[in-house]
Amino acid sequence: MTTIELTDDTFASTIKDNHIVLVDFWAAWCGPCKQFAPVFEESARNNPDIVHGKLDTEEAQRTAAAADITAIPTLMAFRDGLLVFNQAGALPAKALAEVVAMVKNLDMDEVRKDLASQGDRAAQGR
C-alpha cells in the first residue's frame, strides 16, 4: 500500500474509520521532511494493514493547528481513533518500525483505562 494524502476534510474521518493510522505532518520546503518521505513510504509498503497518511501543513493549516504542530516533520499514530504516539523529527527506518510494532501491540483496554484515570486526575485538580 502507498501513502494517502490527507486534507482538512479527510483527516478526522480517516482517523475514525481505520484501526491504525500513521500521519506524517510535512511541508514541501522542509528538508528533514523530504528525508523522511522515503522511510514513511517504505513503512507503508511493509505494513499494508496500516493507513499511512501524509498531511501537508501548508495546505491543511486548520488541521495542523488543531493538532498543535509546532515542528515538522511530526509523526502521529492513532489506534482505534486515539492518539497513541506523537513525536517531532524525522525517524530512521528502524525507529519507525519500532513505533509501528509498539502501536500494533498496544493493549487498548489499558490505554483507555490510563486515559480515563488521567481525566479523573485532571478533574480533581480543578
From TrEMBL:
- What would be one Pfam family of this protein? Thioredoxin
Similarity comment: Belongs to the thioredoxin family.
Q: Which SUPFAM superfamilies match?
A: Thioredoxin-like
List the taxonomic lineage. Answer: Bacteria, Bacillati, Actinomycetota, Actinomycetes, Micrococcales
Under InterPro entries, the record lists: Thioredoxin, Thioredoxin-like_sf, Thioredoxin_CS, Thioredoxin_domain
The transmembrane segments are none
Alphabetical UniProt keywords:
Disulfide bond, Electron transport, Redox-active center, Transport
| Domain Thioredoxin span(s) in chain numbering | 1-105
Can you tell which superkingdom this protein's organism belongs to?
Bacteria
This one is known as: Thioredoxin
Matching CDD domains, A to Z? TRX_family
